[in-house]
Amino acid sequence: MKVPCVRVAREDGERTREALAERDLLDHDHEITVAEGWLYAPIVDPDAIPEEYTIEERDVPDRETQTMPADLLGFDPSYERLGDIVLLREDDTERARQVANAVMDSSIPTKTVLNRASKVEGEFRTREWDVLAGESTETVHREYGYAFALDVATVYFSPRLATERHRVVQQAAADERIVDMFAGVGPFAIPFAGRGAAVIAVDRNPVAIEYLRENVRRNDVDERVEAIEGDVREVATEIEDGVDRLVMNLPHSADQFLDTAIDLAGEDCVLHYYDIQHENDPYGPGERAIRAAAEEYEVTVETRHTVRSYAPHELNVCLDVRLRA
Ligand SMILES: C[S@@+](CC[C@H](N)C(=O)[O-])C[C@H]1O[C@@H](n2cnc3c(N)ncnc32)[C@H](O)[C@@H]1O
Question: Which of 127, 144, 156 to mutate to test the pocket of ligand 1 (most atoms within 8 A of CB)?
Answer without folding.
Answer: 156
